[in-house]
Amino acid sequence: MYKLLAVDMDGTLLDHKQEISEENKRAIQRAMEKGVKIVISSGRAITGIERYIEELGLLGEEDYSVTCSGACVINNAQTKILEEKYISYDEFQYVFEVARKYNIYLNIYTENRILVHWDNYSTRIDSAANRLPMEIVDFHNLDKDVKIMKMTLINEDASIKEELLSVYPNIPVSDIDLPTRDKFDKRLFADAKKFLGAFSEKFTLLKTTPYHIEVLSKETNKGAGVQRVADIFDIKPEEIICIGDSGNDRHMIEYAGLGIAMGNASPELKKAADYVTLSNQENGVAHVIEKFIL
Q: What CATH number does the domain located at 4-85+220-292 have?
C-alpha cells in the first residue's frame, strides 16, 4: 500500500493553463481520504505554489512541500521549516565565473526575491510564476551574507523566445527585447555534465529545459526533500510514489518505490521511471492515483 504521493507542479499537476484540473483535484481528494500523504515537490518557491496548496486543502500543520527543487522543505502552514540548504558565497562566485565565461545569464533565488546581474526573459517568467520580485543587482558586489537557495544558468536568445514562453505558458509577464547574441549555441546545455565538466562534482545540476540548468548545493535535490518528509511519518521508500516531468524530478523518481514520468516528460526521465502515465493535459496524475492508490 502506498502511503505518500509526491507530485511536481509545472508540466505534471498543472495543465498548460497553469491550473489543476477538476479530475486531478478529485483524485487527490480521494487519495487523501484513504490516508495518503500528499506532498507538493516543485522547483518553485513556496510563494509560487501557495494558491495551489490552498485549492487542494493542504494547509495543515502536518502538510509539507518540497520547494526550490529541494533547497527548502517547509510545512504548508509556513510555521515549521524542516530543511534549508544554501549555496555559499564562494560557490556562487564559482558559478558566476562560469556564466561570464560562456556569456550566459544567471539568476539567484533567495527567500524573498530573485536576483539577476542582467535582465533576462526567463527570470521575468520565473518571477511571475513564483510571485517573487526580480531585482537587478551587481553580482560583483553581491552581499556575502545573502542566503542563496538555488541558482539557474540561462542560455537564451531572441531566436528561442517562443520556446521560452512554452516553459510557463499563460503566465503574464512584462515583455523584453531579447538580444540576438553572436554565436548563440542553442545546444550548449545538451550534455549538462560535459558542458560543466568538474563543476558537476561540486553541485547538484538539474537540466529542467534545454536552456535552463538549476544549480543547488551538492546534497540538495527533490529526492532528499521527499525523504525528509517521509522520515517524519516513518514512511519507507517502497511506500512512496513520485511523479514528475523534467530533470529536477529525477532524484525523487529514483528514490521512490514507484517512480512515474508524465507522458510529456523528457526522454531521459521516462527511461529512469518505473511507469509512464498520461500527459499533464490528459490528467496524468489522476490516472496514477486511480491505477495505483484507489
A: 3.40.50.1000
Residues 110-124, mean pLDDT to the nearest whole number: 93
Is the pLDDT at 92 greater than 90? The verdict is yes
Share above pLDDT 70 across residues of the chain, in percent, rounded to a whole number? 98
**Listed residue (116, 215, 211) closest to 162, CA to CA:** 211
Contact 255, 237 (CB under 8 A): yes
**What pLDDT does residue 265 have?**
96
Say how far apart CA 169 and CA 171 lie, in whole Å: 6
Q: Which CATH architecture has domain 89-217?
A: 2-Layer Sandwich (3.30)
Q: Where are the domains of the chain?
A: 4-85+220-292, 89-217
pLDDT, position 156: 93
Pairing of strands 37-41, 64-67: parallel
Distance in angstroms (rounded) separating the CA atoms of residues 201 and 185:
24
3-class state of residue 5 by DSSP: strand
